[in-house]
Amino acid sequence: MTVYKINDLVKFDFIKIPKTLFANPKYKEMSSDAKLTYALLYDRLSLSIQNNWINADGEVYLVYTRGAIAEDLGITYKKAIAAFKELKENHLIIDKQCGHGMPNYIFIVKPELSDTEAKKYTNKENSRPAEMECLDSDECDESIGKPDCDMPNGNIKTCENGMSRGTDMEYQDLPKSHTIKTNNIKTNINHTDNSQSVNDRRLFNKILEQCQLGYFDKDIQRIFYDAIERLFYCRELKIGTSILPGENVRSRLCEIDYTVLENALRKMHKNKRDTKNPTGYVMSVIFNCLTEEFTETHLDPYLNHFREGSN
After folding, report:
1. Minimal CA–CA distance to 147: which of 138, 156, 139?
2. Into which CATH architecture does domain 6-108 fall?
3. DSSP state, 102?
């Protein structure tokens, strides 16, 4: 007989993320960092009960600093601040200040979910086994079993004969010229050794892996893929009154990741003006988000408040 040891208890213990954060449309737009932060905060409630951190109204609160969240999630302090900001904007936490030099008390708010949204999410989950069975069936209609192979989807290897097995966001070198179509823009992409070097293709694939496009909706994947590809292969990029050489743009693209694109998507959704060149606009938004990320850290009022106190 083998009894449980301390490493077993940690190994088989899990952090729970409420499905409401995926079922309610207003929470789906939240970043993964914010959702994981909510899960960690919820997990800390059990520790709060042990410490008797309960107010006069019976409400349980906890203490969890931004620095601790950043360390536990393996993210920057700035991203931890952004995650807390998202949770407050979506009314998922109450962050109560307790005076100078004292940590804030955090109250977790129950996420909302209507009966209609719950049924819609449940029906969607229940339909997935049938979809998978359909994909494996020879009797399935071809239009259902095969996706649009014009787009090099991150989860699909494509070749001359159509679709092969799925992969985890692995972009493969395509043996033939493929075309991506986005609205009125058509881009011919030739991945043969005659047009780009092997090193270029490897670097481009690595950048795509960092972007984790598979976490976005299919139409957003197409938009981002097309914009990133043009940024990667452009000879020069005009931003405002500046013209940047393609080598500089490609070098900065190596720093791109999912959070940069997530920030770019939020800015795109806030756009209220008509755009004559949609792809060029998306390229500019992505590159600006990429270059502004570091600068914003030093302009953040919240961080500067602490910097002034330490000087």
Report:
1. 156
2. Orthogonal Bundle (1.10)
3. S
Contacts of 176 (CB under 8 A, 6+ apart): 160
> For residues 256 and 224, what is the distance between their CA atoms, to the nearest angstrom?
12
Sole residue written with tokens 């823009």? 185
Residues 207 and 225: their CA atoms lie apart, in Å, by 11
pLDDT tens-digit series, residues 120-178: 888 887 776 555 555 455 444 444 344 443 444 444 444 444 444 444 444 444 444 44
Ordered by start, the domain boundaries in the chain are: 6-108, 149-298
Quote the CA–CA distance of 40 and 254 in Å, as a whole number. 30
* Tokens, residue 211: 């972007």
Which residues, 6+ apart, have CB-to-CB distance to 48 below 8 Å? 54, 60, 61, 62
Residue 49 φ/ψ region, left for φ over 0, alpha for ψ in the -120 to 50 degree band, beta for the rest: alpha
Residue 162 has phi, psi (to 5 degrees) of 115, -130
